Amino acid sequence: MSMNPSPAMTGHGFNWRTFVGQNDAYLALIVLIVIGGLISPEFLTTLNLKNLLSQSAVLGILAAAQFMVILIAGFDLSVAAVMALSSVVFAQFAPIGLAPAAVLAVLSGLGCGAITGAFVTLGRVQPLIATLAMLGIARGFAFTVSEKSLLVDSPLVVAMSKSWGIISVPMVIWLVIAALLSVFLYRSRFGLHCLAIGGREQTAALAGVPVQRTKFLVYVAAGGLSALAGIVLVIRTQSGVPHVGNGWELASIAAVVLGGTALFGGEGQLPKAMAGVLIYQTIANLMNQVGLNPYYQDIVRAIIILAVVGVGIFRVRQSERRVNRAEIGETE
Amino acid sequence: MPDAVATLRNICKTYPGVKALDNVSLAVRPGEVLCLLGENGAGKSTLMRCLTGAEMPDSGEIVIDGTAYTALSATDGHALGIGMIYQESSLVPAMSVAENIFLGHEPSSGGMVNRRDLEARAVELMQRFDLRFPPDLPVRKLGPAQQQLVQILKALSRDLRILVMDEPTAALTQREIEHLFELVRTFRKDGIAIIYISHRLEEILEIGDRAVILRDGAFAAERKISETTEAQLIADMVGRNLDGKVSKKSHTGDKVVLSVEGLSSKGLFSDVSFDLREGEVLGLSGLVGAGRSDLLSCLFGATRRSAGTVRMDGAEIHPKSPREAIAHGMGLVPEERRADGLVLDRSVAENMAYPQLDRFVGPSGLRWSKLKAMSSQISERMRLRTPSQDQRVGLLSGGNQQKIVIGKWIAAGARVLLLDEPTRGIDVNAKREIYGLIEELTATGVSVILVSSELPEVLGLSDRIAVMSAGQMVAILDRDEATQINIMEHAFSRVSAGNGGIAA
C-alpha cells in the first residue's frame, strides 16, 4: 500500500555514509589519536595515556551531567562550580571518615541541583540564568568552606591514586558511571521522557509525560553527578580545590556537542558524548605535548567551543531548510 | 439513542483581545461521527482542546460519565479515554515510530522499557490497520501522510472512547483518505465517539452523522447529515457574510508601483513574477506552506533572495534588510502580530514611531511632543480605541493592536503594504474596520499585497488574486473570474502525496 515507506527509506544493507554519520565521533577520535601518535613521540606512551584518561574522567563525569541537561533542551553552567564545592566538602570532612565525607559531598551536589531544578520548573526561570546563579552560589560556598586548597592525606585516597598501566581509579569510576547511565537512559521510561521533552516539550506534556518532574530530576541528577566529579577530582589530586574547574562548564558543553548531541536537545547518545570528551581532552593534551604557549591554548580551546557550537546551530538550520525543501518539492 | 459519552456545557474561553468560545455546549454519543464545522477562528480547535485537557476553559463544565469537571488535564483526558489527533504534528521528530506511539504510557516494568517488547506492540497495532512502518525508524524520516497515520496509531494505542480528529486529511491523498474513512467506520462500529473537524464539506457529507456549526466562537447550528446539503452547511458557517459581505471598490490606478520578475529564494519559493499597481489590492492565496509569507518576507528584505529582480517605480531595488525596504516605502504587517509586529511592553506612541525614530530625534534627544502629535493623528485616522497614547500596547485588543501595526507604516509613509493574515485572531467588528482601512488606504493610492487563508476575505478585498502552490505562483486571477473553487484547484495543483500543506 502506498502509505507504507519504500524499502530505500528504511536503509537496509550497508551504507558507508550512514556508517560514518552514525559513528562520526568515534572515527574522529581514532583519526585524532593517529595524528597525535605521528606528531608527538610522547603521545602514545603509557604515562601520557594514563594521564589523558584520568584527566578525561573528571570532565567526562561533568559532561555526563551536562549531557542529561542538554538532552532536555537546557544548559547547566553550574556543573564545574558544584564540582569544586563538592571537592572541598569532601576534603574538609575526609578526616572524619571517607564515607560520611563522600555522602556529604554528594548531598551538597544534589542540593544545588534541587535548587536549580526548582527554579527552572516551579519558577520557570531560564535554565541559563538559574544555573548561572547557581554557579555563583556554589563557588561562593566552596570558598566559604575553604579559601585555599585542602590536602587529603587519608591512606585510602593515596592508595587510590595508584595506577596500573593506563588504568586508574578515576578512569574506572568514570567508565562505570558512563556505562550505567547510558544503559539507564536508553532503557528507562525516564530516558525516553527526556528525549521527548527535549524534542518537543508540548507533545510530551500532551502525551501525559510528567514534564516538570522529569526536568527537576534531571537537574538534581546533574548536581549529583557534578558532586561525584568533585570526589574523583580529590582522588586524582589528593586535594579539594575551591577555584578548580573554571571554564569547565563550557568545556563540558563543547565535549557533549562534539559527541553529536543536538545543541537544543532531543537527540544524543551518551557514549558518543563521552567520545566527545576524549576528543576535547586529546586536543588539549596534544597542545601540551607540542609545547604551545598556555595562553594560546586558551584561545584554541575557546575557538573549539565556538566552532562546535557554531556547527551545532548550522546543523539545526540545515535540517530546517531540508524540511522546507521537501515541502516545496525541490530536487536539489 | 445511547446516552452521551461526553457533554460540554456553556464553555467560555477568552484570549487577550478575542473571545474564542462564548457559551458553547455540545454532546457526543458513542458510535457517532460528530462533525464540527466553522470558518478559521470559529473556535473548533479551542473547544476540542478544552475536551482533551490541552486547554483550560474559563468557565463551563465538561461532563463525562455523569461526573462534571470544570477543567481537565492532559493526564485526565487520557485516563478518561479521550484521544486527539492534532492539526499540527504531535510527534517528536527524532524519536522512533514505536517510541512516539507509546509516549507517556510506555509498557514498562520497574520504570524500565524493553525496546523489543515496545516495538513488537507497535507492530501488532500497525497490523490491525495494515500498516508496515519499521517501528525503530525516526518519524522525521516519514512523509506527512505517514506521520499523520502514526498520530492516529498513537491515539489508538490507548483505550479510546472519544477520538477527536482535527483536519486529519489535510496532508493525505484521495486513496489515503479512503483508507482513513474505513478506519473511522470501524471505530464507529466499535462504539467509539468520533469528533471530526474538517473544512472539506464533501468529506463531512460522506463520513458524518451529525454536524455542529460554530461561528465566531458561538454555537450557530446543528444539522443531521442525512438531511442537509453542502449549500446549507456553507450558509450556516458563513452566516453573517451573506448579509454584510466583504466587498471593496477598485481603486487600481495605471501606474505600476512594484514589479517582480523571476524572484526566487532557495528552498522557499521560486520564479515568482507579478506587477502591483497603484491603489491595487493583490490577494495572495495558497495553502499553508506554499511560500506566501516567505515571498512577503523576501520582498521586505528579511529573507534572502537567490534570483530575480524587484523594481519599484521602474528602478531596480534589492533590499537586503527591512531597513532598506522601509526606505523604499514598504511596510510589513506580519502574521505573528504580537511577536513580530509590536513591542508589547511599550506605548502606542512608541510603537507608532519605531519605523522612523530618526525623524523624532532632535539635538537634545527624542522629541516626545512631536512624536505624540504624530501618534495621535494616526490613531485618529485609524480610529484606534486607546485610553491614551501612553497605553501599553499589550493591553489593547487584537483589533486595536493590528491598527497600530498598520498605522505605523502609514505614519512612515509606506506606499506598498504587505499584509500577512491581517485579520487572524481578531473579532468580527475589528475585522470590518480593518477591511474599511484597507479600502481607505487604497483610495489614497497605497498598494497592498494581502495574504489571507480566509477565502471570502481574499475574494472580497482583492482586485486580482495570485495563487501559490508548493513554492510557485501558479495563477493570477482577475476578480470576476476568481471563485473559491478555482482558487483551491490552483492551490492544490502542485501538491501531491507527501508534499502537502494544510488546506485553509
From TrEMBL, chain A:
<feature type="transmembrane region" description="Helical">
    <location>
        <begin position="216"/>
        <end position="235"/>
    </location>
</feature>
<keyword id="KW-0812">Transmembrane</keyword>
<dbReference type="InterPro" id="IPR001851">
    <property type="entry name" value="ABC_transp_permease"/>
</dbReference>
<feature type="transmembrane region" description="Helical">
    <location>
        <begin position="165"/>
        <end position="186"/>
    </location>
</feature>
<feature type="transmembrane region" description="Helical">
    <location>
        <begin position="96"/>
        <end position="120"/>
    </location>
</feature>
<feature type="transmembrane region" description="Helical">
    <location>
        <begin position="57"/>
        <end position="90"/>
    </location>
</feature>
<keyword id="KW-0472">Membrane</keyword>
<dbReference type="GO" id="GO:0005886">
    <property type="term" value="C:plasma membrane"/>
</dbReference>
<feature type="transmembrane region" description="Helical">
    <location>
        <begin position="298"/>
        <end position="316"/>
    </location>
</feature>
<feature type="transmembrane region" description="Helical">
    <location>
        <begin position="25"/>
        <end position="45"/>
    </location>
</feature>
<dbReference type="Pfam" id="PF02653">
    <property type="entry name" value="BPD_transp_2"/>
</dbReference>
<feature type="transmembrane region" description="Helical">
    <location>
        <begin position="127"/>
        <end position="145"/>
    </location>
</feature>
<keyword id="KW-1003">Cell membrane</keyword>
<keyword id="KW-1133">Transmembrane helix</keyword>
<protein>
    <submittedName>
        <fullName>Monosaccharide ABC transporter membrane protein (CUT2 family)</fullName>
    </submittedName>
</protein>
<dbReference type="GO" id="GO:0022857">
    <property type="term" value="F:transmembrane transporter activity"/>
</dbReference>
From TrEMBL, chain B:
<keyword id="KW-0677">Repeat</keyword>
<feature type="domain" description="ABC transporter">
    <location>
        <begin position="250"/>
        <end position="495"/>
    </location>
</feature>
<keyword id="KW-0762">Sugar transport</keyword>
<dbReference type="InterPro" id="IPR003593">
    <property type="entry name" value="AAA+_ATPase"/>
</dbReference>
<feature type="domain" description="ABC transporter">
    <location>
        <begin position="6"/>
        <end position="241"/>
    </location>
</feature>
<keyword id="KW-0067">ATP-binding</keyword>
<keyword id="KW-0472">Membrane</keyword>
<dbReference type="InterPro" id="IPR017871">
    <property type="entry name" value="ABC_transporter-like_CS"/>
</dbReference>
<dbReference type="Pfam" id="PF00005">
    <property type="entry name" value="ABC_tran"/>
</dbReference>
<dbReference type="GO" id="GO:0005886">
    <property type="term" value="C:plasma membrane"/>
</dbReference>
<dbReference type="GO" id="GO:0005524">
    <property type="term" value="F:ATP binding"/>
</dbReference>
<dbReference type="InterPro" id="IPR027417">
    <property type="entry name" value="P-loop_NTPase"/>
</dbReference>
<dbReference type="InterPro" id="IPR050107">
    <property type="entry name" value="ABC_carbohydrate_import_ATPase"/>
</dbReference>
<dbReference type="InterPro" id="IPR003439">
    <property type="entry name" value="ABC_transporter-like_ATP-bd"/>
</dbReference>
<keyword id="KW-0813">Transport</keyword>
<keyword id="KW-1278">Translocase</keyword>
<protein>
    <submittedName>
        <fullName>Monosaccharide ABC transporter ATP-binding protein (CUT2 family)</fullName>
    </submittedName>
</protein>
<dbReference type="GO" id="GO:0016887">
    <property type="term" value="F:ATP hydrolysis activity"/>
</dbReference>
<keyword id="KW-1003">Cell membrane</keyword>
<keyword id="KW-0547">Nucleotide-binding</keyword>
